[in-house]
Amino acid sequence: MMKSIVKKANSFISFDLPLEKAYIAKQFASFHKKSMEHSPEWSTTATRQKLIAEYWYTHVIVHFAVLFALPALVIIMISGGFTHLPQYLASFFVAGLLSFLVLYVALYRHYFTSFYLPQVETVKEEYERKVVEQLEKCRQAQLSNFALSLVFYVFYKTSGINGLQCNDHFARLQMKLFGVDQGSLKKSLELILGKKKGLTERKQTEIRHRFEEAYAFFEELLFPQGALILKELESKFQH
Asked: Which domain holds residue 52?
């Protein structure tokens, strides 16, 4: 316990904690998550600026206050300086200003440009890369656009609602439901609802794979009726 306290005290005095990558990464993720909750369009660049402000207005000020202000207060109390407080304050103000300028040049500014800012940039890039990777995983796990339209078609047929058409309205409904490109969904509806047309061997293979995706989806959903409707529709694409 005592060893841990001493270690933390040494880390604080040497100003190591704000420069640790793990600490910066934790702060970045926490700040970004909280900011996104209040403002969904919040960017990682904005979080970067927030971390920079945290460095100067929290870490630097607290560090300097503990290193200079607290000892100064103790000296005033011990020496009975409260009776001559204005003179003491003037002296400590000058000493504090000079001390801060020295620490600013030799420590705070140097650490900021040489260590802290590069770490923030690295953490920012790593965070953005993880977000992209997560989105890519979600994209890969999602059904293809044509398979999504097949699922939409099946649900529409089994719901008893008539009137499914290949137009912007229904493509837009699918876009709202699936969150993918409206134009691609409309083309999928054209293939599903349009007249039978000759397809290249490559296109037939692609469509067969998309049907397999939809079959697998309804199998996992334990919805055999969906597979029956798909089978009926699939015959349209077979020669």
From this structure: 2-141
Q: Using the predicted structure, report yes or no on whether residue 113 has a pLDDT greater than 90.
A: yes
Structurally, how many domains does the chain consist of? 2
E strands, the chain, in order? none
Average pLDDT over the chain, rounded to an integer: 87
Q: Are residues 114 and 156 in the same domain?
A: no
Q: What does the pLDDT look like over 117-169, one tens digit per residue? A: 999 999 999 999 999 888 788 777 788 899 999 999 999 888 887 778 888 98
Of 59, 51, 71, 69, the residue nearest 15 (C-alpha): 59
Q: Alpha-carbon distance 62 to 126, whole Å?
A: 29
Q: Are residues 167 and 193 in contact, defined by beta-carbon separation less than 8 angstroms? A: no
- Considering 116, 141, 166, which residue would you say is the last residue of a domain? 141
Picking from 141, 176, 201, the residue at the C-terminal end of a domain is 141
Dist. CA 7–CA 142, nearest whole Å = 49
Phi and psi torsions of 162, nearest 5° = -105, 160
Cα separation, 225 vs 212, in Å, equals 15
The alpha-carbon radius of gyration of the chain (Å, integer) is: 32
Cα 112 to its chain centre, rounded Å, is: 25
The two tokens of residue 203 are: 């296109």
- Fill in the amino acid letter for 27: Q
Q: Are residues 122 and 41 in the same domain?
A: yes
CB count in 10 Å sphere of residue 13: 11
Q: Is the pTM of this model over 0.70?
A: no
